[in-house]
Amino acid sequence: MPHVDAVSIVAAYRFVELADCAVLRDPLFDRAQAAGLKGTVLLAPEGINFTLAGAPAAMQGWLDALLADARFQGLELKQHNATALPFKRLRVKVKREIIRMNENGVRPQAGRAPAVDSRTLVRWLADGHCDEGRPVVMLDTRNGFEVDAGAFEGAIDWRLQKFSDFPAALEAHRAQFAGKTVVSYCTGGIRCEKAALWMRDAGIPHVLQLDGGILRYFEETPGAPGWQGRCFVFDERLALDDQLQGQPAAAKAAA
């Protein structure tokens, strides 16, 4: 893994109509490659999803070019620094979905799911209820092995093997949510947003996504109240603590 003095890691997604994914793909790849960036960019008719790493100036240049497209203006970025590149290669792919659910009934680009911000969630978790007085339940929309690395205390975990298992799991367990406010969460926000939209369309009345997911919760709430363990990530960092630091080298060797 190459070492550099400073690495900028940036993640973002947006559900937006993209009818020209094949046209977008090559310029995005070429600019990222020329800038020495590593990571993955996914494009689909429903939007964009990416996590990239590289030198800060090079990263900013790639982002400036991306944000010049009106469809991506105001994109919410999750950014932090590291001392080494967490990815070995660059991939820019066109997919059917930017997060696979295998369902045609969800159109997230038609509007975001309602969200709760990190600081409000801290208060709700301490109080045990939302501002309307309903009990709050946290719903983990990640795969079971990710939950094993760390999760919100008491969160509902359906032992998903893959995100496309979510619709069937909801049908089997929807009675758990009667009279409660459900906060869906995931690593960076994309799965919990799509899950919240699916639950809303399925008739679950009080559903919110955790805005920005676990990573933003770590960024915005010192000590990450209510969280236990680490946050699994799909790169060489393996699992992040609440300071967004990767798993220690000794633990990596044992994994």
Describe the protein.
With 255 residues, the protein is α/β, with parallel strands linked by helices. It has 2 domains: 3-94, Alpha-Beta Plaits; 108-254, Rhodanese-like domain (Oxidized Rhodanese, domain 1). It has helices at 21-34, 56-67, 118-127, 144-149, 166-173, 190-201, 213-220, 249-254, and strands at residues 3-15, 38-44, 47-54, 78-84, 90-94, 115-116, 136-140, 150-152, 156-157, 181-185, 207-210, 227-229, 231-232, 239-240. The strands form 4 sheets. Strands 4-1-3-2-5 form a 5-stranded mixed β-sheet, with helices on one face. The protein has a 5-stranded parallel β-sheet with strand order 6-11-10-7-9. The protein starts with a strand and ends with a helix. Mean pLDDT is 91; it is low at 249-255.
Number of strands: 14
CATH fold category name of the largest domain? Oxidized Rhodanese, domain 1
The neighbouring-strand order within the major sheet is: 4-1-3-2-5
Portion of residues within helices: 25-40%
> Helix/strand-derived class?
alpha/beta
CATH superfamily of the largest domain: Rhodanese-like domain
> Helix-strand pattern, N to C?
EHEEHEEEHEHEEHEHEHEEEH
Mean pLDDT level: 91
Overall shape: globular
Indicate the CATH architecture of the largest domain: 3-Layer(aba) Sandwich
Using the CA coordinates, give the radius of gyration.
Answer: 18 Å
Number of spatially distinct domains: 2
What is the CATH level 1 assignment of the largest domain? Alpha Beta
Distance between the termini: 18 Å
